[in-house]
Amino acid sequence: MIWIFYSHGITALIGPSGSGKTTYLRTLNRMHDMTANVKVEGEFLFHGKDIYSDSFDLVDLRKRIGMVFQQPTPFPFSIYENVAFGLRLGKKVPKRVLDQEVETALRQAGLWDEVKDRLNTNALGLSGGQQQRVSIARVLATKPDILLLDEPTSALDPISSRVVENSLLNLRDRYCLIIVTHNMQQAARISQRTAFFNEGRLVEIGKTRDIFLNPVEKETQDYVSGRFG
Ligand SMILES: Nc1ncnc2c1ncn2[C@@H]1O[C@H](COP(=O)(O)OP(=O)(O)OP(=O)(O)O)[C@@H](O)[C@H]1O
């Protein structure tokens, strides 16, 4: 099966617990490389080049295909240093440039107005939703093409979740976002395309509206109508 992700927009990966959503997501930036006994099959082309080829630079890959996890993952540094972290890796960047890039990333993540007066305070002092947006800004700062998000709002309260969702909505015209979510309402609210996984297989992928209202497969119909999962 050939599966294409477009250069921008949100694709939601849905399915019952243990259906393989996270396992699939992690293949997209080679997160399984460090795990013993994992075999990845198939071809994963990124701008026409197989990301599993030996010549693909892993650090570059993870900059261009960034990942945001379920738990916010700020480092115990200032907000500024968190976002600047990836920009500083392996090169010297002038402060003026760094300031600009940090601001841009925080604006894109929808956090700038809330933190612009306290960039030097510890990111761990922020709320969960703010910490998650710091995590998103940190990934955005390295100028990725793709953001992989593994249940990015499931550890947050409903209000913080909505704020993070809104940030993702603002990013979808510029980036390719691929998001694992347990929350079908969330998938329906924010994604243009949805993929349904079950028992380690991709069952069906299509426009979100079609997957929810008019799926091809009975398995998908049963899941979206709440008959299992
Ligand atoms: N295609 C597959 N091949 C081999 N193992 C798989 C496959 N899909 C899933 N698994 C195994 O099933 C387990 C659950 O998978 P995974 O965590 O990806 O599911 P999930 O849909 O993300 O679940 P949850 O929604 O609970 O986070 C993992 O241990 C994984 O190794």
From TrEMBL:
InterPro entries: AAA+_ATPase, ABC_transporter-like_ATP-bd, ABC_transporter-like_CS, P-loop_NTPase, PstB-like
Nucleotide-binding in keyword set: yes
Domain of life: Bacteria
Pfam families assigned: ABC_tran (PF00005)
Keywords annotated in UniProt: ATP-binding, Nucleotide-binding, Phosphate transport, Transport
GO MF assignments: ATP binding
Gene3D superfamilies: P-loop containing nucleotide triphosphate hydrolases (3.40.50.300)
Domain ABC transporter residues, every copy: 1-224
Protein name: Phosphate ABC transporter ATP-binding protein
